[in-house]
Amino acid sequence: MNKVGLPAIDKKTKIAIIDDSIRKYMKILFFSIALFICSSIGAKIIEIKYFNESIPYLTQNTLFILDIDDTLLVPKQMLGSDMWFEDRIKQQKGSEAFEKTLNEWEGIRHFTQMQIVEPGAQKTIEDLQKKEHIIIGLSTQSLTLSKVTFNQLINNQIDLRVTAPQENYYFQNEDKGVLYVNGILFTSGTSKGKALFQLLEKTKQRFKRIVFMNDKGSHLADIEQEAEKNHVEFIGLRYGYSDFRKKSFDSRIANIQLNRSGFTQILSDEEAKALLQKKP
Description:
- The chain is built from 10 helices and 10 strands.
- By secondary structure, the protein is of the alpha/beta class.
- The strands form 2 sheets. It has an 8-stranded mixed beta sheet, sandwiched between helices.
- Strand 9 (209-214), helix 7 and strand 10 form a beta-alpha-beta unit.
- Helix 2 (82-92) runs antiparallel to helix 3, helix 6 packs across helix 7 (221-229) and helix 9 (251-260) packs across helix 10.
- The longest helix is centred in the N-terminal third of the chain and has 32 residues, at 11-42.
- It is globular.
- The chain starts with 10 loop residues before the first helix and ends with a helix.
């Protein structure tokens, strides 16, 4: 008996207990390492800052999909940007806030000037097209913006028709019309993933890998899920070049631009800032 009245444990029993503890610890350690390795292999969302960081992922038989807003193009001013859209919804409140803001945003997009998100990205796209990489655009924009968006891309030296499927398609997705035209798929706010694979079915194209680049990580998941269902490898690139611009958003400047601009010209950030500083 030991000092607390419990039976004494002999040397062999102690060794057996220690061995058993070691085996249990090794099993836990092995499982943890295996889980980490599997998670690392299965990690399909990758953070990139510059457009040309996408190039190594564009292997043979890969479809390269580019989001439009804040990935390729951004308004020259704060008004009409993604950050403005989110801020405007909060300002309007109520059950119709989203629809009201969406109507305003679409109206602004018809006459605002757009600029390239990352200078030089258009040259990278052109070089990839010369190497015959298949590249298409993908946007949740409504069909009414299809011509405007195409022209805005062309004005910024981006032509997504070059290696994209040439035929135009119109079809239904989640009870809404979806349009593929000029190398861009417009999904009218419906699932990008479902719309994409409907398009690929119509074009009779099958890719080994899909690479989708978007400034919002949450927007990558939809296509990832559909790619998995269709047994296609997926790599999502969360593109962070415009993050600094989003952080500098000032709702006061955007509100001045909304209230003081005309249909022919929107106040620049500098002009709106000057008006803001004049206020008593």
